[in-house]
Amino acid sequence: MDGGAGGTSFGAKYFPALGKRNFRIFWLGQCVSLVGTWMQNVGQSWLVLELTGSPAKLGLVSALQFLPMMLFSLVAGPFVDRFPKRKTLVATQGALLVLALALATLTATGLVRYWMVLVLAFLLGMVNLVDVPTRQSFVIELAGRESLVNAVSLNSAAFNLARIFGPAAAGLLMEAIGIAPCFYLNALSFVAVIAALLAIDAPPLVGESRTGSVREVLASVREGLSYVRGKREIALPLVLMALISTFVINYNIYVPTFARGPLGRGASGYGFLMTAMGAGSLAAALLLATRSGAAAAKGKGTAPGAARLFAGAIGMGACLALCGLQRSYALTAALLALTGFCTIVFTASANAGVQLASDDAHRGRVMSVYSLVFGGVTPVGSLYAGSLTDAAGPAAAMAASGAVGLAASLAIGLAARRRRDARRTGP
User: Fold this and answer.
1) Which of 110, 227, 357, 377 has the most CB atoms in a 10 Å sphere around its CB?
2) Under 8 Å CB-to-CB from 240, ≥6 apart: which residues?
């Protein structure tokens, strides 16, 4: 893998992952594609609210989109470990392009119906079942272990830079010319990722390029789960991630319903709230990237600590709860920016931590479990958030969900600290 020049001395010091040619090309393709992804996310949520006016039905769309990940993500892990990741990603990105184009055409022609959105959301989830863990476990092959934290932080920066421009552009487009252009632009953006994948030098495949029998696949799944259970530094972040994802990270339901309801805002107002959240997330991602890059340049370890993990989780719950207790648009934007900041601190710490704690042979299966607890619990979380919002209103739903997340983070954090202290003082 080409180390590359890395650009300026500042870039080489703080963003060493960009000095790796393969990662740099892949990352630039992601930067383009993620803008389209965020435009589609915002457009789809607003489309469902226009078609149905129901937060619960919006929650059902999100639930169906992540249902495949909940049901089958563990089975996807062995396949991720056994097939060349570049070829897999070219196929999945092509499929995502086709699905975005279908939704765009249905919307532009006025043929779109709620059930069609449900079907396309489920198909999107089937593709992401393979795409997500493959992309996440591909990063360490492109950037190397020594630059993994930096690479994960840069991916978060790209994701949240897109989160700034994508929702704002989507909101303006929706008010000016309609929702369909958001979906067309997303379809076009996948071309950038496919081009980047074809341009990189694919790393050699780790492991065997065969799937084996059903019995062998299931045995591989069991072995992967046993591996996760046996490593506390992997298991603990995953348990916390499952709880936070279920109760807190339902922003695609909380934010549009809160904007449309208590705040009385339209599509552009909703889009700019998502942009504020993206700005906070981008700030966190850049901070983590520069700190990890500087630490690596000094020869220090860059593995994220438990304190950062729990601080991010606690901050997410507190900020979401506070958001539901007020009605100011400006304060909502500020609180969502803080929520975005804490979300990236938490998720980037969990992602990098479990990858660094895993060996190469198990990383695909570990990241399939990560996908399960991050996105796979979304059907439960979306149905919970949509039903609670329907019953109690978006403000009460945000306040209650943030409080649950805060309590869970504090309880698990204190239990982990007591266990660590007991080991230190034990015989």
Assistant:
1) 377
2) 309, 310, 313, 350, 408, 409, 412
Residue from 245, 279, 243, 244 nearest 167 by CA = 279
Q: Quickly tell me which residue has 């989160």 as its tokens.
A: 163
C-alpha 256/C-alpha 277 separation (Å) is 13
Per-residue pLDDT at 398 exceeds 50:
yes
Above 90 in pLDDT, residue 258? yes
In eight-state DSSP terms, residue 147 is G
Separation between Cα atoms, residue 269 and residue 167, nearest integer Å:
10
The tokens for 210 are 């065969």
Whether the Cβ atoms of residue 265 and residue 275 lie closer than 8 Å to each other: no
Q: Which amino acid type is present at position 415? A: A
Distance CA 59, CA 25 (A): 35
Q: For 186-211, give one letter per residue: b (16+ CB within 10 A) or e.
A: bbbbbbbbbebbeebeeeeeeeeeee
User: Averaged over 24-28, what is the pLDDT?
Assistant: 91
CA distance 215 to 245: 31
Using alpha carbons, select from 371, 357, 249 the residue that is nearest to residue 305: 357
Lowest mean pLDDT, pick from 146-150, 201-205, 365-369: 201-205
224 closest CA partner among 72, 354, 71, 365: 365
Res 184: pLDDT? 94
Query: How many Cα atoms sit within 13 Å of 427 on the Cβ side?
Result: 0
* 264 token code pair: 């009385």
Q: Which of 146, 147, 143 is nearest to 1 (CA)?
A: 143
| Secondary element (H or E) of residue 21 | helix 21-52
Contact between 266 and 398 (Cβ < 8 Å):
no
Q: Sorting pLDDT into bands at 50, 70 and 90, what band is 274? A: confident
- Please write the tens of the pLDDT for every residue from 146-174: 777 788 888 878 887 787 788 888 888 88
Q: In this predicted structure, what is the pLDDT of residue 204?
A: 60
Structure tokens at 14: 């703080």
The percent of residues above 90 in pLDDT, for the chain, comes to: 36
Task: Give the mean pLDDT of 199-224.
Answer: 69
- Is the Cβ–Cβ distance between 151 and 157 less than 8 Å? no
Is the CB of residue 371 less than 8 Å from the CB of residue 290?
no
Q: Which residues of 368-379 are buried (b: 16+ CB within 10 A; e: fewer)?
A: bbbbbbbbbbbb
pLDDT at site 223 = 86
